[in-house]
Amino acid sequence: MVFKSLEISLSALIAERERMNIISSNLANINSTKEGKHNPYIRRRVTFKTVLENVVDELSGDKIEVAKVKVDRIIKDAVPYRLVYDPTHPDADKNGYVKYPNVNPVREIVDMIDAMRVYQANLTAFNNNKAMIQKALEIGKA
Amino acid sequence: MDMFGKLNIINDFLDYRYQRAKVISSNIANADTPGYKPRELLFEKYLKEEIPPLPLKKTDPRHIDPYYPPPKFKEIVVENPPGYDKNKVNLDEELAKLTDNNLAYQVLSQMLMKNIEEMKTSIKGR
Questions:
Q1: Is B40 among the domain residues?
Q2: Which residues of B touch A9 (CB under 8 A)?
Q3: Chain A neighbours among B 90-119 (CB < 8 Å)?
Q4: Concatenated DSSP letters of A2-66
Q5: Domain residues for B48?
Q6: What is the mean pLDDT of chain A?
Q7: Predicted pLDDT of residue B53
Q8: Chain B contact for A79 (CB, 8 A cutoff)
Q9: What pLDDT is recorded for position A55?
Q10: Which residue has the higher pLDDT, A64 or B68?
Q11: Which single residue of A28, A75, A93, A136 has CA 20 to 30 Å from B19?
Q12: Is B110 exposed, middle or buried (0-12, 13-18, 19+ CB in 10 A)?
């Protein structure tokens, strides 16, 4: 993209949307006792990675380091499963316990609010940058 | 360089921005089309590789080759890392690209206007 500042904000928007997708998957599968063959759904979590980029400033010639963000990995959370006693459940083990996913709804909701706020903040940064560029165009106008 | 050389360069870039806006818009329009892959318009990269146009078959030595204006842009299909569904359009990205493109268009159109103004001034004198 032509304007680097917009590109930085965009990288965060994409990353946060990805995070939101994962949170939605976790919440949607909160009662899925089967993923694949045996085990229940395992909670996913997203890790972010900084992408550094060197940009040469057009006016001063200085090298400026900008930091974009990117989803690094989607990992499976190691928290143990929830065990619920329900002998009539088809997925119950021989002691009558059913393994439920290790998803904690409170945690997911908190994560979701955080993702939403970060998204909003980056969108605001994007729009402010856009307004700045448009203002700069007025310098040239007679 | 001819008299309006500078204007022609700006013109080409404006044209590129205009065509690119169309490509990005069609990406957004197909955001729900299953299996659609986003398109991108290349400009700078494509100028480096020149493809000679196909000559016409001549049955008479007096036949002349037609003139093809060289293509300035190339539309390509973007291969993104696979997402959750078959469609690969990222709405955030496309909208941001549209904004970026729009701002660049504004910058270029102002440059063009300024250049024409300069020329008018030199014609009229002060």
A1: yes
A2: 96
A3: 90, 92-93, 96-97, 99-101, 103-104, 106-107, 110, 114, 117
A4: --HHHHHHHHHHHHHHHHHHHHHHHHHTTT---SSSSS----EEEEEEEEEEEEE-TTT--EEEE
A5: 5-53+66-124
A6: 91
A7: 58
A8: no
A9: 84
A10: A64
A11: A136
A12: middle
Share of chain A above pLDDT 90, in %: 71
* Contact state of B114 with A140 under an 8 Å Cβ cutoff: yes
Residues A14-35 have pLDDT tens digits of 999 999 999 999 999 999 998 8
**Yes or no, beta carbons of B96 and A6 under 8 Å apart:** yes
Sign of CA dihedral A97, A102, A107, A109: negative
Q: Do A1 and B96 touch (CB under 8 A)?
A: yes
pLDDT tens digits, B18-53: 999 999 999 999 888 888 888 888 876 555 555 555
Structural domains in chain B (count): 1
Residue B47's pLDDT is: 57
Count CB neighbours of B85 within 10 A.
Answer: 9
Query: What are the residue boundaries of the structural domains of chain A, listed by start?
Result: 4-137
Residue B118: inside a domain? yes
- Across the interface, do B96 and A21 touch by the CB < 8 Å criterion? no
A127, A129, A130, A132, best to mutate vs chain B, most B CBs in 10 Å: A130
The answer to whether residue B24 sits within a structural domain is yes
Is residue A14 within 8 A of residue B93, CB to CB? The reply is: yes
Whole-model pTM? 0.78
